[in-house]
Specification:
Length: 132
């Protein structure tokens, strides 16, 4: 599935933002922000910040809780996971790491740190060996 085919609005313009696509799914399902937050056991302000783009897409486990609360189609679920991984700059391997390690990698690669890719790759190898 190509990124341009991931998610479309009703006029078929692609949605490339995790938060905007999450909001589209929520509204399509006629679920309020507060209802979604309660179902997913998250705060309404956190869901709002994800939808607005002021927070990065959550880790896979949190995304799964949100999606379980919305019960989207399989294609919507897959598209949201891909949009989230793309926005976080992660890979399928990253998604299998413990949440704390993924958070650390995201923090280290964030705007304030500019950690070189070779260090991130080395960290991934080290962690993979440590958790295996």
């Amino acid at each position: 599935m190509q990124n341009s085919q991931l998610a479309h609005t009703e006029d078929q313009a692609p949605i490339t933002s995790f938060g905007r696509y999450l909001r589209k799914i929520r509204i399509t399902r006629k679920v309020t922000l507060r209802e979604l937050a309660n179902r997913a056991q998250l705060s309404p302000s956190y869901i709002s910040s994800i939808e607005s783009g002021s927070a990065t897409p959550p880790p896979r486990e949190t995304t799964e809780r949100i999606l379980d609360a919305l019960d989207p189609e399989d294609a919507e679920r897959e598209a949201l996971f891909i949009l989230g991984m793309t926005a976080r700059g992660s890979t399928e391997f990253d998604e299998r790491l413990p949440e704390e390690v993924r958070f650390l990698i995201c923090e280290l690669r964030g705007d304030g740190h500019k950690l070189p890719d070779r260090f991130v790759r080395a960290l991934r190898v080290y962690v993979k060996e440590a958790v295996s």
